[in-house]
Amino acid sequence: MTDRYAVIGRPINHTKSPLIHGLFAEACGQRIEYTAIEGSLEDFKGDVQRFREQGGLGMNVTAPFKLQAFELANSASERARLARAANALKFVEGRVEAENFDGIGLLRDIQHNLGQPLAGRRVLLLGAGGAARGALLPFLDANPARLVIANRDLDKARRLLADAGRRDVEVLGYPQLQGQSFDIVVNATSASLSAELPPITADVFGNARLAYELAYGKGLTPFLRLAQGSGVTNLADGVGMLVEQAAEAFFWWRGMRPQTRPVIDRLTIPLV
At residue 177, does pLDDT exceed 90? Predict the structure, then answer.
């Protein structure tokens, strides 16, 4: 019997996960069936339970169900607990285990694929939502010289640090960024999904080595366009993060780590 996995979200017709995991399985010599499930806003728990009853072994979880996935789990990793969200589930002997690989996928893309280590660098993370929650611990483990979280709602950002039990991160409002520059700037806000620019100025880029946009497949977003106009030559969107977090889930489920570069190259759409 072929092992079954799936991704669940709503809407789900845009997902690249079946293609990604199909390529991973082929490269690793694994026989799996991986499908996409359009989740129900009213019965996410039932959708997961039905998939388990049909022999499902694990699921990727995308918007808007990551919070519900975490709440559904019997146990969760430290990353998932901090994010209070799960992007991967594993079903083991009647239990549901939760993980959040978004942050380590992002970090691996920045450091390994793009060749930009965070150690000793000034890092600016825009936004304090789920994506920032997932990135916080992996970013801190990479030992940046300075890590700043900028957000409109300062209380939300401060709650994130309180939940993590960390005091070695600065929280700033967007107006406080004026006159400050960073080596790596990551846009973890939802602004680019509606073709908007986060409330930043060109100051933040200074002599930046990298401007990273979590949204992918959007071309030059307003964030990346501002970075480019400020002289940043290393621009990236989130396709590498997408593939790297999928590889982490594949390893968690199958015990084999696939090569990611061929898949990233296949999915990458030139920014310009």
Answer: yes
Give residue 83's pLDDT. Answer: 84
Summarised one tens digit per residue, pLDDT across range 218-234 is 899 999 999 999 999 99
Q: Is 200 exposed, middle or buried (0-12, 13-18, 19+ CB in 10 A)?
A: buried
For 107-139, how does the pLDDT look when each residue is reduced to its tens digit (9 = 90+)?
999 999 999 999 999 999 999 888 888 888 899
Of these residues, 45, 66, 156, 218, which one is catalytic?
66
What pLDDT does residue 166 have? 74
All domains of the chain in start order, with CATH: 3-100+242-267 (3.40.50.10860), 103-236 (3.40.50.720)
Mean pLDDT rounded to a whole number for the chain: 93
Instruction: Return the pLDDT at 103.
Output: 92
Encoding tokens for residue 23?
A: 């390529």
Matching residue, tokens 């901090």: 82
Residue 66 designated active-site:
yes
> In the sheet that 95-99 helps form, which strands lie side by side, from edge to edge?
32-38, 3-9, 56-61, 88-92, 95-99, 75-76
